Amino acid sequence: MTTPLSESAVLRPHAEDAFAHELDALAKGDSRPRPPRWNLSPWAVATYLLGGHAADGTEITPKYIGPRRLIEVAVATLATDRALLLLGVPGTAKSWVSEHLSAAVCGDSTLLIQGTAGTSEESMRYGWNYAQLLAHGPSRAALTPSPMMTAMTGGKVARIEELTRIPADVQDTLITILSEKTLPIPELGDEVQGVKGFSVVATANDRDRGVNDLSSALRRRFNTVVLPLPATAEDEVRIVTQRVAALGRGLELPEVPAAAEEIRRVVTVFRELRSGATEDGRTRLKSPSGTLSPAEAISVLTGGIALAAHFGDGTLRPHDVAGGILGAVVKDPSTDPVVWREYLETVVRPREGWAGFYEACRELSA
Description:
17 helices, about 45% helix
């Protein structure tokens, strides 16, 4: 018998577990109308995502930092019979928003279909328990429900990650589900009907256009919300700082003080190379092949904190993040090293206060 793990022992708790106290506080003071089977009203769901305070004064931490209207449109979509498609380049928090929307709406973010080239039709619809099938023939008892089927029968939110990674013929199984709110079971001459509260949230990557483009018939059945990269450096620093702190606590890394300077430096490097220009707009730059998203900045800084805590003096310094930045920037070995060296020599080297960072990067790039 498997002993249930405590939340503190889990590497990455589900959103509904990690933020249970916030969801409970919002639910207790939420007197606004709720759609069928929703745990919170749309207003409270938006507050959970964007931050604020519950009726009892409990602080609600922001899960998404960006335009409020985008989250309001996403929540309103789920309150209708339309499916929601979160679209954006890597690192714009599509999966993060999808998870927290599901946690706030139905208290269950685990009904997930991960899109890959190998995602099968059974993953989207249902499979079979072959022992039951051979012993008793086709029956409801022999069905193995997919997360989609479970969401339909329970009035919950089904999540689909990386929709455009899924083969086109498998994608098209969604058309009947989204338009008719029905999942046919032709082997039994039966069907599963979605009950009130059932919704679908899918994510797709802007960079994956042309992999498995959505058909026009399928795209029409989604309301698309495009999540942009952070508009300002301050927003991006805030996002990265918040997520690095949360990851550090979850991984039980020793606390590393005074990381603000290096966080801003990493964010600045990523934003400049991503946009192809320095912050002041005076110098045009070549951009590398990678996306250099906030998610990658978070990874670089979390790795740097681990280095500083276990192999350094406990303070995050340039040499702790230099290797991670090099790995994030140089994805294509034929072109990216040139881009990186030019950036080091034309931007980093003359920049005041960046001498230590320049030396650390030059040492690794030599």
